[in-house]
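Researcher: Let's run the pair from yesterday's discussion. Sequence first, then tokens, for each.
Model: Starting with the first of the pair.
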Amino acid sequence: MEIRQTSKNQAKEAVHGRGASDNPPNRFEELHLDYDKENPSPEDPVPTTQIFKDRSQSLITYNDSPDVGFNASINVYRGCEHGCIYCYARPTHEYLGFSAGLDFETKLMVKENAPELLRKELSSKKYQPQVLAMSGVTDCYQPVERHLKLTRRCLEVLAEFQNPVAIITKNHLVTRDIDLLSELAKYSAVAVFISVTTLDSNLARILEPRASTPLHRLQAIEQLSQAGIPTGVMVAPTIPALNDSEIPAILHSAARAGAQQAGFVMLRLPYGVKNLFQDWLKQHFPDRKEKILHRIESIRGGKLNETSFGKRMRGEGIFAEQIAKLFQISCKKAGIMGKDLKLSIDSFRRPNQQLGLF
């Protein structure tokens, strides 16, 4: 083990069951702890998942971004074990002193008091009823949720207050909470979008190693839809020259499963995600790496990432226009609409205050 700077050209081996292959330097830290992969030692740790307590004193976060479809969101987890190599949220882990690489998918910060914080904030007279998004940053149904059940407990609070919630996930685990989602659906207070990036299980295994398989995601759409829960599909992210050709098939399959709405978001590669994604391409698609990168640059003004509002979600240029057109035509053929599922705040209530009236 040694402390050194990692060379951008250093060859890296894929880590089984993980998206990233190492921990690149944190852009806020001068020193970086790395492991010599050319001469591995028995002392080198296996990248197992670790859980840490997040002692945040608030839960609802607000944004004023014009190209994000929500103003307020809830994230009970920081970091995500799904390990999606492309995840735009990876750099947020650097604010915690971790790396955007393996740390993001193995060192999870958990807000154990999230349900209590949510109840307190919804009960406040300062809170204005509005749609709350879950998984605005990291997936609220990532594997650790199976036993921690923080998302479920937050949904119990939302159902009690009848506050609308929009969920996006790539995990079949969301079907566990159909009872609560069905209750919210009675008040037009819930919508669930399942992210389907590819129908190729082999690609999904290396692209999103610990997320549900494509088949299980389609099954989740079907189960939610049959339960009367407004359900949509997100082709996100759309990666030029890698999965954009699958858009018609994904939308067709999702529509058959019961998806009513659809949306797509172009690949975003902020900060260190650029290097992680390039390393991943070198490991898994060395013959297509340059084509994919050039195609990304063609929709990002010659760069690998664009942060400008209005451009970062869709890209620009001829290839971006072709992808958008393909999506629109495919939606029409599949019989599904855009991604606007109307939610209502009309039934919002504060239970404690209502009891106080008596």
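Model: Moving on to the second of the pair.
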Amino acid sequence: MRISDLELQKLTVAMEGKNLSFSQVLELIENSDLQSEKIIVVASEIELTVDYGRTLEQAIADGNYDWNHGDISSENFPISPEMLGQKVEIKTKLFRFNRDISSNDVISEMDKAGYRPATLMELLALGILFPELQRQFPIVALGYVWHWARVGRFVPFLYVNDYKRGLNLSFVAGDWGTRYRFLGVRK
């Protein structure tokens, strides 16, 4: 089996996040039954490059999603003018809560930890680098809320439905369940 440079980079990021050596990773693999058990390692902090030289539509195409919500567009989720044309390195973290939680409480907890909610372009950068991660849990970006007239407020999230990777919108009212993860960006 040949390992691509991108796969090697993902493995290295995950190992560093868990402070594991190569020998420890090999031991984990050798001691597990990969037929019946999935080993998922999520780094505590993930470095991403967000390319604002690309349009939102190009970033969505780069993510190779099987489906995306038609209202996720440059018109509804504009890139701030000061970011256009830039490539930005960011440090991110996936936040998980063992309870149902409101969007405001998620943002407050992120703030206490020194993070802010991710924007759509930052979420897409994660989806491009780690396309299989959303198969484990839905990943939400609370950094930009789209107001759909007479309907309500929505935020983008990555998810899987019928084994297909998707980019969708979720209604912001109410609490998020325990299965959701929230992408935060270090301030």
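Researcher: Give me one sentence on the second I can quote.
Model: Residues 5-18 form the longest helix (14 residues).
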